[in-house]
Amino acid sequence: MSNKAWTHDDIPDQAGKVAIVTGANSGIGLETARYLAVRGARVLLACRSESKANAAMEEIRKSAPSAKLEFVRLDLADLDQVRQFAELILAKEERIDLLINNAGVMVPPESATKQGFELQFGVNHLGHFALTGLLLPRILATPDARIVNVSSQAHRFGKMNFGDLDFKKRGYKAGPAYGQSKLANLLFTFELQRRLDAAGEGVIVTAAHPGWTATNLQQNAGFVERLNPLFGMTPPDGALPTLRAATDPRAIGGDYFGPSGLGQMRGAPRKVGTTKAAKSLSDAAKLWEVSEERTGVRFDLSRAAAA
């Protein structure tokens, strides 16, 4: 890839494409939706709150008055609602060019999803795992489709503890739970790409992290939020790794994008590396098995392709 700094101007034309962005009502999700819409994509804002999504769409239309935008309710903390969302999308959408699994929660007080899973693992990983699997038939039927999973530098201190994924035996610790969920995002990315390749499918799966970006995701991480004025990028810049992962025609399956500056905290997006843990084949296989069990969603690629 070129050493030239990649900017918003490098986003290719997206006319005719349909993009789903989870958590698109604020932060890097909002900016991802904005720039895809500016380039001509029809963007579905998959959010919990209709009022917040409507406010986000009003904000986007300031940049792109003719933007094609639509709110579709999605609560990733409720797998029943994820299924309802997927059923609606499959019934009305003929194509899905981009699925951007952006939504997330960061270091909240101890809490659980509707199905009883630790909230960060449940939303950041399980909800997106289920969503991707349920939408896969339409994604596979769309030429040159792409799936993007948004991870974090926190994956570097993440550890998959399969004997206590919900921190019930150890006692809840918000930071380690967040790191585990972000490591899971990358394990899922690489394992899904391996399975797509083995099935001979052309869909590619990429990942990105926003470095240090000042967003409301950090509302429960007080020390981080206080340092935002010194180190944090603005959301438009923080969204660039996601946008590159989603649109760069030179990206290949398994690419991971993050900021190019010191410590990957800020700067133009480039391809970056991961920890060895994120490339663990055994952990990826185990996580896949556990995720299928917990969500009840099976990625049957042959069945999806036939559909």
From TrEMBL:
Keywords: Oxidoreductase
Keyword flag Transferase: no
EC number, as in UniProt: 1.1.1.-
Highest taxon of the lineage: Bacteria
UniProt cross-references to InterPro entries, sorted A to Z: NAD(P)-bd_dom_sf, SDR_fam
GO molecular function, one term: oxidoreductase activity
TM annotation in the entry: none
Pfam families to which the protein is assigned, alphabetical: adh_short
Enzyme kind, highest EC tier: oxidoreductase
PANTHER family, sorted: PHOSPHATIDYLINOSITOL-GLYCAN BIOSYNTHESIS CLASS F PROTEIN (PTHR43157:SF31), PHOSPHATIDYLINOSITOL-GLYCAN BIOSYNTHESIS CLASS F PROTEIN-RELATED (PTHR43157)
Annotated NCBIfam families: PRK05854.1, PRK06197.1
Family, as annotated: Belongs to the short-chain dehydrogenases/reductases (SDR) family.
Protein name, per record: Short chain dehydrogenase
Organism field: Plesiocystis pacifica SIR-1
